[in-house]
Amino acid sequence: MIKRIKHSLEYLLDKSSRGKTSSAEENLLHDFAFSEYQNSKWDNDFMGNPEIESQNIYEEIQLRIGRKRSFRPYLKYIAAASILFLLGLGFFLRPNVLNQKQITFKTSSIPKSIQLSDGSKIYLAANSSFQYPEKFEGDQRTVSLLKGNAFFEVAKDKQHPFIIHSGEIQTRVVGTSFHIQLSKLNCKVIVVTGKVNVSGKGQSVDLVPNQEALFESQKLTKQMADKAFLVNWYNEDVTLEQTTLKQVITILQYKYGVSFEYDDKHVLATPLTVFIKKDATLENVLEQINYITNLKFKVYGEIVKVD
Question: pTM of the entire structure?
Answer without folding.
Answer: 0.67
